[in-house]
Amino acid sequence: MAYSEEWIERYSRHIILPEVGGKGQEKLNESKVLIIGAGGLGSPVALYLAAAGIGTLGIVDNDVVDLSNLQRQILHTTNDLGRQKTESAKEKLEALNPEITVNAYHELVNSTNIMEMIKDYDVIVDGTDNFPTRFLINDACVLGNKPLVHGAILRFDGQVFTIVPGAGPCYRCIFEEPPPPGTVPNCSQAGILGAIAGIIGTIQATEVLKLIIGKGRTLKGRLLVVDALDMTFREVKIRRNSACPICGDNPTITQLIDYEWVC
Amino acid sequence: MSNTIADDTLDLRGVLCPINFVKTKLKLEAMADGEILEVYLDSGEPMANVPRSVKNEGHQIIKATKEEGGYFRVIIKKSS
Nearest-CA residue of chain B relative to A6? Predict the structure, then answer.
């Protein structure tokens, strides 16, 4: 393949890496990643993946940019207040890397649209902020056999977990079902240190890149738990649960569920 | 001097680090094991860096000769 001067220069620091090289970079350029949520986690994930040259990025979010988002959602600026997050994201990502395609989906994922949405993508990233969607995404990725990089943040804490259906545990192997509505606070109730979104989101982006180039060891079967107040990174080994309701030996969940949304 | 028959040649005179190495690496990736690549490198930083990086990737430097005009001709054997 003949490489353009611009391509060589833009991706030179990747190509130099023995684990990436020209072939790894081509894999990144040919891959498609869907990021669900263009907020705290989705921002760093999308920025780094766009910069890395992921050929097609899908961004899903039904929200508009609010002033209270800007403390951590670094894709959006004060000039974007009131705009659709997907539109704001697309503009920033295309400016960062005009060589990529950004598909913006200004909608809420639910049991009726998610399978169609994830179908054409190679890797899915969960950057959502609530349990109903998190479980929905896990189940959809298990049923659709799509690798999923899960991330979640609250206060000074965060976690990352990589799910490769058929090859390791899923989110329901750890947590069988969502907590009862109202028992777990969300960011607007509990607060969030903005920079945590950067720590967890960039780890998610790194996992995506490793999945695509096929190098290194991912967080498959390892839940990474970050406590930024104490600055500790703890790893919890997770095994596939043979009784898991979605990926176990005799799954009881065979179709997607829309859990009750309380915010 | 030029008795080694190269399968491919890259003239990287005037190309700065690390792009000269990146171009060498991309060319080597596209070549078959055992094939010979000849590169022209400027003296100084390029000669200090590129052959070392090429060796770190597992390829062999067969020889490096100083040519008229002060540049170097480096013969690399692709090895994976």
Answer: B19
Q: Chain A residue closest to B30 (CA)?
A: A1
Torsion of CA A244, A246, A252, A254, to 10 degrees: -170
pLDDT digits (tens, 9 = 90+) for B22-64: 999 999 999 999 999 999 999 999 999 999 999 999 999 999 9
> Residue type at A178?
P
Residues of chain A with pLDDT below 50 are none
pTM of the full structure: 0.95
C-beta separation of A248 from A190 below 8 A: no
Please, which pLDDT band fits residue B3 given cuts at 50, 70 and 90? low
**Distance separating alpha carbons of residues A5 and B12, to the nearest angstrom:** 13
Among A1, A15, A23, whose Cβ lies nearest the Cβ of B22?
Answer: A15
Q: Which amino acid is at A63?
A: D
Q: Is the link from the previous residue into A147 a cis peptide, with omega within 30 of 0? A: no
Catalytic site residue from B6, B13, B17, B27: B17
Tokens of B5: 């028959």
Full set of structural domains in chain B with CATH: 8-77 (3.30.110.40)
If you write DSSP's letter for every residue of A51-94 in order, what string do you get? HTT-SEEEEE---B--GGGTTT-TT--GGGTTSBHHHHHHHHHH
Domain A14-237: which topology?
A: Rossmann fold (3.40.50)
| Identity of the amino acid at A176 | E
d(CA A217, CA A219): 7
The residues of B whose Cβ lies within 8 A of any Cβ of A are 18-19, 21-23, 25-26, 29-30, 53, 56-57
B17: annotated active-site residue? yes
H-assigned helices in A104-224: 114-118, 131-144, 171-174, 187-190, 194-213
Residue ranges covered by each domain of chain A: 14-237
Task: Answer whether B57 sits within 8 Å of A18, measured CB to CB.
Answer: yes
**pLDDT score recorded for residue B1:** 46
